[in-house]
């Protein structure tokens, strides 16, 4: 038997699961430094031999032969499986869920099953078992260790590499490496995919010479208290564009995390002092668009440096999800959506 230990990269805390596969207050990972906390990348490469074992969040996951009936709880698995040329037999939720993930459109036209995920926010072993899977993909956020044991009695179950106590998120690179091993693909595809990912952001940064070294802040509307909280969950792709965290913007290192970051109500709009400001007021927190309307109407907003620069950027749901966290399939879509405004801005052109 070949035992593989996929590399563990530093990841940030997943902040909230709002609906099936929909992370709105989500997570980010440092996908550019290649640091590992476990075995080397070489030890995780696969030659397609089975059985294969992955050291994952709740222990070893062993697959005896190439999976043919993969069940995915969560839409994020669609993009990673597509990189490998694999298709699940079913994905949790409804086909309409892909409206929130436009970069996944066209990658999967198979079955969706709303019963795979319960109203309580957990996986349904009964519904999953009915599909006779030979590999189950889910996460520690919808399957605790007790539920994982039930799922594992149905089929090998992969939930990522980190338990909730360890941070609870796994970078796309580590998930892809694990999936490559579990499905019999060479892990070199991870390096190839990461190179394309980094090239996408590097090419975008080259279009923004006037923004290099400029500061940014990113505020996400909290639906509970109607305040904008600064979060580091999209720092990695934004910093890859050449920007640097501004006042109060958490870095994700040490105590500089979203949990300790400032929250700004409408009364504190002037605290958004960075050169570039991203504001996220998604429909789940602002269904009537009340906060966004009040924010835009505030007479102090035009006086913000970002507003004068043309770099006050409003992100709607999918634009936020695309970088929260970014994935190989989402980053190009996000760049195409957001970078044109930054490229045309007075701050970038010097106009």
How is this structure best summarized?
With 351 residues, the protein is α/β, with parallel strands linked by helices. The protein has 11 helices and 14 strands.
Topology-level CATH name of the largest domain: Rossmann fold
Helix fraction, binned, reads 25-40%
The H-and-E topology, N to C, reads as EEEEHEEHEHEHHEEHEEEHHEHHH
**CATH fourth-tier homologous superfamily of the largest domain:** Nitrogenase molybdenum iron protein domain
β-strand amount? 5-15%
Number of strands: 14
CATH structural class of the largest domain: Alpha Beta
Low-confidence stretches at least 5 residues in length (pLDDT < 50)? 1-46
Instruction: Give the name of the CATH architecture of the largest domain.
Output: 3-Layer(aba) Sandwich
Q: Any idea what the radius of gyration is? A: 21 Å
| Tally of helical segments | 11
Query: N- to C-terminal separation?
Result: 63 Å
């Amino acid at each position: 038997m070949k035992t593989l230990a996929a590399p563990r990269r530093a990841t940030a805390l997943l902040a909230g699961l709002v609906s099936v596969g929909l992370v709105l207050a989500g997570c980010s990972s440092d996908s550019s430094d290649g640091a590992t906390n476990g075995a080397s990348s070489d030890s995780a490469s696969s030659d397609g031999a089975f059985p294969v074992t992955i050291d994952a969040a709740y222990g070893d996951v062993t697959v005896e032969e190439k999976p043919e009936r993969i069940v995915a709880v969560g839409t994020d698995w669609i993009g990673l499986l597509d990189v490998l040329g694999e298709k699940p037999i079913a994905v949790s939720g409804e086909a309409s869920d892909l409206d929130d993930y436009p970069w996944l459109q066209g990658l999967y036209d198979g079955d969706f099953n709303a019963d795979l995920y319960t109203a309580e926010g957990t996986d349904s072993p009964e519904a999953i078992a009915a599909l006779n899977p030979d590999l189950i993909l889910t996460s520690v956020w919808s399957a605790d260790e007790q539920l994982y044991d039930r799922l594992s009695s149905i089929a090998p179950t992969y939930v990522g590499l980190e338990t909730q106590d360890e941070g609870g998120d796994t970078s796309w690179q580590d998930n892809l490496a694990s999936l490559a091993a579990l499905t019999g693909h060479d892990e070199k595809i991870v390096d190839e995919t990461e190179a394309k990912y980094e090239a996408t952001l590097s090419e975008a940064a080259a279009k923004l010479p006037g923004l290099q070294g400029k500061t940014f802040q990113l505020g996400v509307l909290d639906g509970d208290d109607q305040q904008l909280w600064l979060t580091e969950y999209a720092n990695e792709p934004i910093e890859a564009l050449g920007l640097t965290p501004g006042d109060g913007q958490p870095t994700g290192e040490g105590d500089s995390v979203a949990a300790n970051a400032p929250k700004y109500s409408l009364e504190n709009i002037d605290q958004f002092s960075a050169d570039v400001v991203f504001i996220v007021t998604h429909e789940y927190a602002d269904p009537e668009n009340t906060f966004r309307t009040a924010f835009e109407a505030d007479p102090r907003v035009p006086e913000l440096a970002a507003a004068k620069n043309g770099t006050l950027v409003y992100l709607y749901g999918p634009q936020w999800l695309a970088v929260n966290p970014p994935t190989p399939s989402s980053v190009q879509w996000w760049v195409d959506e957001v970078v044109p405004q930054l490229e045309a801005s007075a701050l970038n052109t010097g106009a």
